[in-house]
Amino acid sequence: MKRTGGTDEAKRRAGERAAEEVEDGFVVGLGTGSTTAHAIRAIGEAVENGLEVRGIPTSFQSRQLALEVGIPLTSLDAVSSVDLAIDGADQVVDTGDGTEQVLDRSDAGDGDLIKGGGAAHTREKLVDAAADRFVVVADPSKLVDRLEGPVPLEVIPDAHTVVADAICELGGDSTLRAAECKDGPVVTDNGNLVLDCSFGPLEDPERLASRLASIPGVVEHGLFVGRTDAAYVGTESGVEVRE
Ligand code: 5RP
Known about the structure:
Layout: H1 8-19, E1 27-30, H2 34-48, E2 54-57, H3 60-68, E3 82-87, E4 91-93, E5 113-114, H4 121-130, E6 131-138, E7 143-144, E8 151-155, H5 160-169, E9 173-176, E10 193-198, H6 205-213, E11 218-221, E12 223-224, E13 230-234, E14 239-242
Parallel strand pairs: 1-2, 1-3, 3-6, 4-7, 6-13
Antiparallel strand pairs: 4-5, 5-12, 8-10, 8-11, 9-10, 13-14
The structure holds ribulose-5-phosphate.
């Protein structure tokens, strides 16, 4: 069940709070989406005030915004480590009752994510996985008791029909993501297509993740299992921190 409260104000609070984690000298992974955009703007402001950081963008969109706000950029292959990655999500497992602000990774899967609403999950996973610390920024509308899809798959263009068949065999249903403002499909920053795959509520996200990863033609799936170090959830009045 999704919760309500997905206002831009809540997103801003989450993004700005995560940006406070950035320290002088950090290499920071810059995620994609409207919530992370608030973090990128806040980091830009800190840079203006003298903070020295280098950002690694996860998409064309985050690269453009980082350039606009003056964050010096680098790339994964030019650094020896990434100190922190800040990124948004489409669904975040949160089994707490609102008072319990811990990530219960043991069997509840707290902090497991579905990403890829912005078709950027391949580079996001690359950068987020490389980071010493991965922080998710979200608003309450993203919190779920259990992941329930759809799960985005980035697929190479020639493979979209065979991958769709493979999803059927796994008991799912897939839709080729269409571009909003023009005819034709969404094309990712890597020149690929996106299949949004529904499987109903996910009983075992880790197992599904390894099955999806093994389908030829799948570049990356949007399941992020067991990767989150902390989640900042912006609300109408503050920020809830899950560690
Ligand atoms: C992009 C993503 C985004 O982080 C996710 O879609 C959340 O976006 P927003 O903060 O705009 O709700 O995974 O691929």
